[in-house]
Write a structure and sequence with these properties.
mainly alpha, globular, two-stranded antiparallel ribbon, single chain, disordered N terminus, 1% strand
Length: 389
């Protein structure tokens, strides 16, 4: 228990430091007038209904009422969002026994460290979805059915209006709901399906919505800025996005990101596979993962989408451990690491592997970029550069 407390305390410090550095980097990134993250949050409905515009519209209305600088409102909102996200992470990971295997998974360069090393991933719209998912799983753990169904009924469609990318992660919500049930009755299934109707309606509306040049012009006029960044992609159809994504594709990128995926996701897949109820645990997880790879056809920031999937996977893993639907100690990887720990002559191999995996490399956000090196050193170097300037 003492070891658990120490490790939990260290994890809390780790997450807190990630939060502080994220805010520091966000502030410096925010200074660029064409920052992509800022452009995402500035999308609004002033030119008519469009995808991803709900938060931007709220900020426009606040700006109109209080006469604040809208970019400053965006920055304040991003800080609040990041604080909420990291607070939920710390709260959700309480009382977790950080075994060497969990340390390998949780502190992966593709996990919570990724936005700190790749600043273009800081405070993006998926963070709102992470918050909703953590709140949703917490409601299941606390057996708060009213909150669970409220999130399905209201939370999902609202977040859908902020970031339509959550379409590809809805299966995680369905999977964790049913896997947490000892027995599933018809009444629960009916209530669950009814709760998803507003989400499905919002999805259909978003899929059939496409902006035009006049709408974009009115939208940008409302914030007194020219359209930039994410705003310029609102008039892209799914086919347009797919053509754009494929135009950037090269076989070397596929090989590189396949390599990254195997290295990062192999421990998770092995844990899910090594369970007694493979049909429910492993196959359910694989089904959740499959739709997320559609992003590889419609985007060029592959590293970011692998990060989103990885965070969803880690949070789901912790949830399954909490509800005792998953046994970590019985997995082959856990047993293998424990056996290595007992053999002093082979223990240094384990240390070398952990060091190289956790500290020597990190994936980049854009598919055209090569694999990065020494992430913690790069973070420190960037901090010093900003402080000197």
């Amino acid at each position: 228990m003492v070891l658990t407390k120490i490790n939990n305390k260290f994890f809390n410090y780790y997450i807190f430091i990630c939060f502080i550095i994220s805010i520091f980097f966000l502030y410096h990134k925010f200074q660029f007038p064409t920052d992509w993250t800022t452009s995402e949050w500035l999308i609004n409905y002033q030119g008519g209904f469009t995808r991803r515009g709900l938060v931007g519209e709220i900020l426009v209305q606040i700006n109109t009422f209080f006469n604040f600088e809208i970019r400053n409102l965006v920055f304040i909102f991003e800080i609040i969002l990041l604080f909420t996200y990291y607070f939920y992470i710390i709260n959700f990971f309480k009382k977790i026994d950080f075994s060497p295997l969990l340390i390998l998974i949780i502190f992966s360069p593709l996990g919570f460290l990724f936005p700190v090393t790749e600043t273009e991933a800081i405070a993006r719209k998926e963070v709102l979805l992470f918050c909703l998912y953590l709140l949703y799983l917490s409601s299941i753990l606390e057996r708060n059915q009213k909150l669970t169904y409220s999130i399905l009924l209201f939370g999902l469609p609202i977040v859908n209006l902020v970031w339509d990318g959550n379409i590809f992660y809805i299966l995680f919500f369905i999977y964790t709901f049913f896997v947490s049930r000892i027995k599933i009755n018809k009444k629960e299934v009916i209530i669950f399906l009814i709760s998803l109707i507003p989400y499905l309606i919002s999805t259909i509306i978003l899929i059939t919505t496409k902006s035009n040049d006049q709408m974009l012009e009115e939208m940008c006029k409302a914030i007194n800025e020219p359209c930039f960044g994410a705003m310029n992609f609102l008039d892209y159809s799914f086919k347009d996005q797919m053509n754009y994504g494929l135009s950037k594709f090269k076989i070397e990128y596929l090989i590189r990101y396949s390599f990254i995926s195997i290295i990062c996701f192999f421990p998770l897949l092995l844990i899910f596979y090594d369970q007694k109820d493979k049909s429910k645990i492993f196959l359910g997880y694989v089904i959740c993962v499959i739709p997320t790879f559609i992003f590889l056809y419609i985007s060029f920031d592959w590293g970011r989408y692998l990060h989103i999937l990885y965070v969803f996977s880690v949070i789901t893993l912790i949830f399954l451990l909490k509800i005792k639907k998953l046994e970590l100690e019985e997995t082959r990887l856990f047993i293998f690491i424990n056996e290595l720990k007992k053999k002093k002559n082979k223990l240094y191999f384990l240390y070398i592997y952990f060091f190289l995996y956790l500290f020597a490399w990190h994936p980049k956000i854009i598919l055209t970029d090569d694999i990065g090196s020494l992430p913690y050193l790069r973070i420190l170097d960037r901090i010093f550069d900003y402080l000197i300037v």
